[in-house]
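Attaching the record inline, Q. Sequence:
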Amino acid sequence: MKKTGWVVVFGALIFTLNLWILSKPTPGAVFTAPLKSLGQITALLGTVLLAFEFILAARIRLVEKWFGGLDKVYHAHRILGGSGFALIVYHPLFLLVNALPNVRAAMNLIIPSSILSYDYGIFAFYSFLVLIFLTLYVKLPYHIWKATHILMGIPLVFMLLHMLFITSDISAYLPLRVWTLGLTFAALAAYSYKRFLYTYFGPRYEYTVSLVMRAGAITELTLMPTAGRLPYEAGQFAFISLENKWLAREKHPFTIVSSPTETALRFSIKSLGDYTSKLEVVREGDKVYVYGPYGKFGEKALASAKDQIWIAGGIGVTPFLSLAKFLSARGNTGTITVFYCVKNMDEALYAEELAHARANPKFNVLDFCSDIEGRITSEHVARIAGDPKDKIILLCGPQGMVEGLARDFEDIYHVPKHNIIFEEFSFLG
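Structure, as predicted:
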């Protein structure tokens, strides 16, 4: 299922290309005005990619399943957004060159005039240009980054109006018109759901903060359900929105530390940014809305009987705490070697909590201190856990550590890519 999402996207692109060719009086008409044709097809394909970008951002469960996790969905969201806009950029450029030497006609494609159908496209182009540049190439504080995403609905509406009123292949060929406008309306519906309805009608559960514990840069929140409980699997994460007058009511993703067998819901959060650094204001009794669950990190570990290797770097231990607790209680047929990687034992805040896994003969839990042993490598892992080739490997921690180990396991030990599992949280700012 993990490749289904990309198959759907590429299938939509091919379908669009075929409809565009069919919109011509003859197939050869595509080549009679090549620059005009390039301008048309780049616009159509760019529109398809941008439509999917909005659909992918809506946190739809089926879409998450298609891509193999919400982190993979958002990774695809970024790729489609950048690629779609790149194609859209070429749309007016090809048409502009095609219009020359008629300078007036060329300028009407890039400067607003009295031709409203053109102006809608120009407004869409420039607003997309600013917002996508800010999103992809400027490191912004989370609340400003989020605002740029909220404003994305503006160019989407202009794009839809441009398509509705422009005289083009879309207006001349009904199947192409229904397809492209249908996709764009679906994108607008997805945007509207995420922007206006998700807060109230998404997978929301009400909790109350029952305990707040702090240890250095770590804030641990224990939540108790007010009504129904969040139904989750070990290793998943959720978005939380804290009802606290000192905090913005933004939804932020955090890994669930507790086991699905527990009533309480626990999150262990490290201060890494503007929002997480303000969690010191959270108090017991604060209301919390929890949205989810999301993620496929523990899915294979829970389902497989193979031996496994878990490598946690610092706060990256959080999904393993949930998995270890759940699998220790449930029982597991394979052996699991856990590497808890920290700078020194003073930072190993959850070493004691892993004690229940240490007591299980199926678990081999090791504290790996970089101050003593240096940074962990695939060679360290293979020497202790044995040949990793036929094992399932779960990685969670700093991006550099995860990417380096994943690459080495694949290149040096020929571990199949589908057996190396990690989540990418950089998409969340």
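The mean pLDDT is 91. Residues 299-428 form a domain with the Rossmann fold fold (CATH 3.40.50.80).

More tomorrow.
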